[in-house]
Design a protein that fits this description.
Elements: E1 4-7, H1 17-35, H2 39-52, H3 62-69, H4 75-84, H5 95-102, E2 107-112, H6 116-122, E3 134-137, H7 138-141, H8 149-159, E4 166-170, H9 173-183, E5 186-190, E6 201-202, H10 205-217
Parallel strand pairs: 1-2, 1-4, 2-3, 4-5, 5-6
Length: about 220
Protein backbone atom coordinates (compact mmCIF):
# COMPACT_ATOMS: atom_id res chain seq x y z
CA UNK A 1 0.00 0.00 0.00
CA UNK A 2 1.45 3.35 -1.06
CA UNK A 3 1.39 6.01 1.64
CA UNK A 4 4.35 8.28 0.75
CA UNK A 5 4.89 10.13 -2.54
CA UNK A 6 8.06 12.10 -3.26
CA UNK A 7 8.32 14.55 -6.13
CA UNK A 8 11.31 15.96 -7.92
CA UNK A 9 11.07 19.76 -8.01
CA UNK A 10 12.62 21.29 -11.15
CA UNK A 11 11.01 20.09 -14.35
CA UNK A 12 8.38 18.22 -12.34
CA UNK A 13 6.62 20.68 -10.02
CA UNK A 14 8.30 23.97 -10.92
CA UNK A 15 9.31 24.73 -14.50
CA UNK A 16 12.96 25.35 -15.28
CA UNK A 17 12.66 29.05 -16.13
CA UNK A 18 13.92 30.11 -12.70
CA UNK A 19 17.15 28.11 -12.99
CA UNK A 20 17.69 29.12 -16.60
CA UNK A 21 17.34 32.82 -15.77
CA UNK A 22 19.60 32.59 -12.72
CA UNK A 23 22.44 30.54 -14.20
CA UNK A 24 22.41 31.68 -17.81
CA UNK A 25 21.35 35.33 -17.54
CA UNK A 26 21.88 36.74 -14.07
CA UNK A 27 25.23 35.14 -13.22
CA UNK A 28 26.84 36.28 -16.51
CA UNK A 29 25.29 39.73 -16.00
CA UNK A 30 26.91 40.06 -12.57
CA UNK A 31 30.21 38.71 -13.91
CA UNK A 32 30.18 41.27 -16.74
CA UNK A 33 29.44 44.14 -14.37
CA UNK A 34 32.04 43.20 -11.77
CA UNK A 35 34.80 42.47 -14.29
CA UNK A 36 33.95 45.28 -16.73
CA UNK A 37 33.61 42.96 -19.73
CA UNK A 38 30.89 42.50 -22.33
CA UNK A 39 27.96 40.23 -21.58
CA UNK A 40 29.09 37.94 -24.41
CA UNK A 41 32.58 37.63 -22.93
CA UNK A 42 31.08 37.02 -19.50
CA UNK A 43 28.76 34.36 -20.84
CA UNK A 44 31.66 32.52 -22.50
CA UNK A 45 33.76 32.62 -19.31
CA UNK A 46 30.92 31.46 -17.08
CA UNK A 47 29.95 28.65 -19.43
CA UNK A 48 33.55 27.39 -19.58
CA UNK A 49 33.65 27.28 -15.77
CA UNK A 50 30.28 25.51 -15.52
CA UNK A 51 31.54 22.81 -17.88
CA UNK A 52 34.95 22.51 -16.25
CA UNK A 53 33.55 22.00 -12.76
CA UNK A 54 30.58 19.81 -13.62
CA UNK A 55 30.43 17.08 -11.00
CA UNK A 56 31.90 19.30 -8.28
CA UNK A 57 30.17 18.69 -4.97
CA UNK A 58 28.96 22.32 -4.91
CA UNK A 59 28.06 22.55 -8.58
CA UNK A 60 24.41 23.45 -7.85
CA UNK A 61 25.27 25.89 -5.06
CA UNK A 62 24.83 29.59 -5.96
CA UNK A 63 26.99 30.62 -2.99
CA UNK A 64 29.86 28.53 -4.31
CA UNK A 65 29.77 30.17 -7.73
CA UNK A 66 29.09 33.78 -6.84
CA UNK A 67 30.88 34.05 -3.50
CA UNK A 68 33.66 31.44 -3.54
CA UNK A 69 34.55 30.66 -7.14
CA UNK A 70 33.98 33.91 -9.05
CA UNK A 71 34.23 36.17 -5.96
CA UNK A 72 31.52 38.47 -7.28
CA UNK A 73 29.06 39.00 -4.41
CA UNK A 74 28.57 38.57 -0.68
CA UNK A 75 26.16 35.94 0.61
CA UNK A 76 23.47 38.47 1.52
CA UNK A 77 23.62 39.85 -2.03
CA UNK A 78 23.19 36.38 -3.50
CA UNK A 79 20.16 35.75 -1.29
CA UNK A 80 18.64 39.02 -2.42
CA UNK A 81 19.39 38.18 -6.04
CA UNK A 82 17.54 34.88 -5.65
CA UNK A 83 14.58 36.52 -3.92
CA UNK A 84 14.32 39.13 -6.68
CA UNK A 85 13.85 36.33 -9.22
CA UNK A 86 10.92 34.66 -7.42
CA UNK A 87 8.52 35.74 -10.17
CA UNK A 88 10.31 33.31 -12.50
CA UNK A 89 9.29 30.32 -10.35
CA UNK A 90 6.11 28.95 -11.90
CA UNK A 91 4.20 25.71 -11.52
CA UNK A 92 3.26 23.51 -14.44
CA UNK A 93 -0.52 23.65 -15.11
CA UNK A 94 -1.03 20.01 -14.08
CA UNK A 95 0.60 20.39 -10.66
CA UNK A 96 -2.18 21.80 -8.49
CA UNK A 97 -4.92 19.50 -9.88
CA UNK A 98 -2.69 16.50 -9.21
CA UNK A 99 -1.72 17.59 -5.71
CA UNK A 100 -5.33 18.37 -4.80
CA UNK A 101 -6.32 14.86 -5.85
CA UNK A 102 -3.56 13.29 -3.73
CA UNK A 103 -3.59 15.41 -0.57
CA UNK A 104 -5.05 13.78 2.51
CA UNK A 105 -4.69 10.31 1.03
CA UNK A 106 -0.86 10.29 0.91
CA UNK A 107 2.06 11.97 2.65
CA UNK A 108 3.70 14.22 0.08
CA UNK A 109 7.34 15.29 -0.06
CA UNK A 110 9.78 17.06 -2.37
CA UNK A 111 13.25 15.67 -3.04
CA UNK A 112 15.43 17.99 -5.11
CA UNK A 113 18.98 18.73 -6.23
CA UNK A 114 18.28 22.44 -5.71
CA UNK A 115 19.98 24.08 -2.74
CA UNK A 116 17.88 25.37 0.15
CA UNK A 117 18.24 29.00 -1.04
CA UNK A 118 16.52 28.09 -4.30
CA UNK A 119 14.02 25.72 -2.73
CA UNK A 120 12.65 28.32 -0.34
CA UNK A 121 11.85 30.69 -3.22
CA UNK A 122 10.52 28.05 -5.61
CA UNK A 123 8.18 26.56 -3.01
CA UNK A 124 6.45 29.94 -2.68
CA UNK A 125 5.02 29.59 -6.20
CA UNK A 126 1.23 29.53 -5.83
CA UNK A 127 1.80 28.48 -2.18
CA UNK A 128 2.65 24.96 -3.33
CA UNK A 129 4.59 24.33 -0.12
CA UNK A 130 1.27 23.87 1.72
CA UNK A 131 0.82 20.47 0.06
CA UNK A 132 4.07 18.95 1.31
CA UNK A 133 4.88 17.70 4.79
CA UNK A 134 8.61 17.55 4.06
CA UNK A 135 10.94 19.20 1.55
CA UNK A 136 14.46 17.81 1.16
CA UNK A 137 17.35 19.58 -0.56
CA UNK A 138 19.90 16.88 -1.37
CA UNK A 139 22.96 19.21 -1.10
CA UNK A 140 21.72 21.40 1.77
CA UNK A 141 19.75 18.98 3.96
CA UNK A 142 21.13 15.54 3.14
CA UNK A 143 24.75 16.42 2.43
CA UNK A 144 24.75 14.68 -0.94
CA UNK A 145 25.72 15.57 -4.49
CA UNK A 146 22.95 13.68 -6.24
CA UNK A 147 19.92 11.48 -5.62
CA UNK A 148 21.73 8.23 -4.97
CA UNK A 149 20.47 5.11 -3.21
CA UNK A 150 21.54 6.45 0.19
CA UNK A 151 19.45 9.60 -0.31
CA UNK A 152 16.33 7.58 -1.07
CA UNK A 153 16.99 5.30 1.89
CA UNK A 154 17.20 8.37 4.14
CA UNK A 155 13.94 9.64 2.66
CA UNK A 156 12.25 6.36 3.59
CA UNK A 157 13.70 6.55 7.09
CA UNK A 158 12.30 10.06 7.57
CA UNK A 159 8.81 8.70 6.91
CA UNK A 160 9.40 5.37 8.67
CA UNK A 161 8.28 3.77 5.41
CA UNK A 162 9.29 0.59 3.62
CA UNK A 163 10.29 0.88 -0.06
CA UNK A 164 7.00 -0.76 -1.07
CA UNK A 165 5.10 2.02 0.69
CA UNK A 166 6.71 4.84 -1.30
CA UNK A 167 6.69 6.13 -4.86
CA UNK A 168 8.84 8.79 -6.51
CA UNK A 169 8.27 10.78 -9.70
CA UNK A 170 10.56 13.09 -11.64
CA UNK A 171 11.88 14.08 -15.04
CA UNK A 172 15.41 12.62 -14.84
CA UNK A 173 15.45 9.01 -15.99
CA UNK A 174 18.42 7.98 -13.87
CA UNK A 175 17.98 9.97 -10.66
CA UNK A 176 14.17 9.95 -10.53
CA UNK A 177 13.41 6.51 -11.95
CA UNK A 178 16.32 4.07 -12.03
CA UNK A 179 17.82 4.93 -8.62
CA UNK A 180 14.61 4.73 -6.54
CA UNK A 181 13.74 1.48 -8.31
CA UNK A 182 17.08 0.04 -7.14
CA UNK A 183 16.10 0.86 -3.57
CA UNK A 184 12.85 -1.05 -4.08
CA UNK A 185 10.54 1.93 -4.33
CA UNK A 186 7.87 2.39 -6.94
CA UNK A 187 8.95 5.04 -9.43
CA UNK A 188 7.64 6.86 -12.49
CA UNK A 189 9.54 8.77 -15.13
CA UNK A 190 7.85 12.06 -16.04
CA UNK A 191 8.30 12.65 -19.77
CA UNK A 192 6.64 15.96 -20.55
CA UNK A 193 8.02 15.85 -24.11
CA UNK A 194 6.18 12.56 -24.76
CA UNK A 195 9.22 10.83 -26.18
CA UNK A 196 8.76 7.59 -24.21
CA UNK A 197 5.92 5.20 -23.54
CA UNK A 198 5.49 2.52 -20.91
CA UNK A 199 3.62 1.57 -17.78
CA UNK A 200 6.08 3.51 -15.61
CA UNK A 201 6.20 6.55 -17.88
CA UNK A 202 3.78 9.44 -17.34
CA UNK A 203 3.38 12.58 -19.40
CA UNK A 204 1.91 14.84 -16.75
CA UNK A 205 1.21 14.72 -13.03
CA UNK A 206 -2.52 14.14 -13.41
CA UNK A 207 -1.69 10.90 -15.20
CA UNK A 208 0.78 10.10 -12.43
CA UNK A 209 -1.84 10.66 -9.73
CA UNK A 210 -4.15 8.23 -11.48
CA UNK A 211 -1.43 5.57 -11.70
CA UNK A 212 -0.58 5.91 -8.02
CA UNK A 213 -4.19 5.40 -7.06
CA UNK A 214 -4.30 2.40 -9.38
CA UNK A 215 -1.34 0.93 -7.49
CA UNK A 216 -3.30 1.06 -4.26
CA UNK A 217 -6.36 -0.39 -5.97
CA UNK A 218 -4.54 -3.60 -6.98
CA UNK A 219 -3.95 -6.30 -4.34
CA UNK A 220 -0.30 -6.80 -5.29
CA UNK A 221 0.34 -3.08 -5.78
CA UNK A 222 1.50 -3.68 -9.34
CA UNK A 223 0.15 -1.99 -12.44
CA UNK A 224 -1.10 -4.31 -15.14
Amino acid sequence: MIRVISFDLDGTVVDKDFDNVFWFKEVPKVYARKNNVSIDAAWEKVLVEYKALRGHKKWTDPMFWLVEHFDLLEEREVRQMITDLKGNAKLYPDVLPALNSLKGEFELAVLTHSTREFVEVKMQAEQVSAFFSKVFSVPSDLGGMEKDELVYSRLLKEFNASPEEAVHVGDHYRFDYEVPKKVGMHAFYLDRQRERQGEHVVHDLKEFAGKVKALNATPAGVLE
